[in-house]
Amino acid sequence: MERPVFLLAPMDGMTRASFRSVCFDYGADGATTEMIQSLAYGRAKKRMSATFEEVLVRYDNERNLAAQLIGSVPEMMAESARRLEALERFDAIDINMGCPARKVVGSGNGAALLCEPEKAIRVMEAVKSATALPVRLKLRLGWDGAHITAPELILAAQELGFQSVTLHGRTRAQRYSGEVDLQTMRRIIAQARIPVYANGGVTNAKDAIAFLNATGAAGVAIGRAALKQPWIFDDIARLRRGEPAPQRQAPERVTLLLRLGKLACGHRPERVAMFEMRKFCGWLLPGLTGAQEVLRRLNQVVTLEAYRALLEGYLDGLIKAGDLSLHASLMPEQTLDTV
Question: What is the value of pTM for the model shown?
């Protein structure tokens, strides 16, 4: 893609096929699956476990979809890449060297590889040699401010023939707090000869466009902001055409949640999917009249039928009352600390 692209960034536990599909409906240019643990997947029996089946679902409207591998053992990363290619389900393989989670880093995976560039490059070489699929890389600037290793790893990705890189503008030490280092990102991106997509700190469509311009990237990968605004991709397209981004009122929000719930039940146990939907309802309903009561009642919902009845009844009540807009006074401070 030559034009700037706006992608859904991978988020463990969040970017399952159901949520990705909704984002594609709103115009996302691509996405990446949740993390697939290469050590487990590479050694898995031929018949995939239920856990892998959930992660590896792909819907018809998903395009430019990469499967994300995480691991630090080259042989297992290579074997996992071969297995993923054999599924004939994905458009690329994405290597995760950016996850800052303590559990992940403690196992030597994700952002831990930023401390060991030579080992990281061996992992990259193993995956690239194991598959004919395009290979991508996701990473951070470095482990901390004193160890900025992204330039070295992006150079290696270029030489190995990687398709693209997604660069998060913080170090592992920063995790998800602190300022994104725009100056360093711009310098690194300017030196790259393959597409680099900027990631980190976007909160809305205007931010995404400003981030693109500030970094000189080939596009922007949007993560946590999309959880509260799946329509952010449509908002971006409208703003780039010079159109205003609309306020998303009750009918659109509730209809989105109904679709998302139905999709989630298609690849997860119903009770698990309904538990997951509490999070999304908690992000998308606040600001609407009566939302807190709906969220309270959702805590008792464990079936799709009950979920549908609750939301459809709620929307009908709002329509009859002519009260469909968001109210700033009803919008509590929201965080995404669980992601």
Answer: 0.94
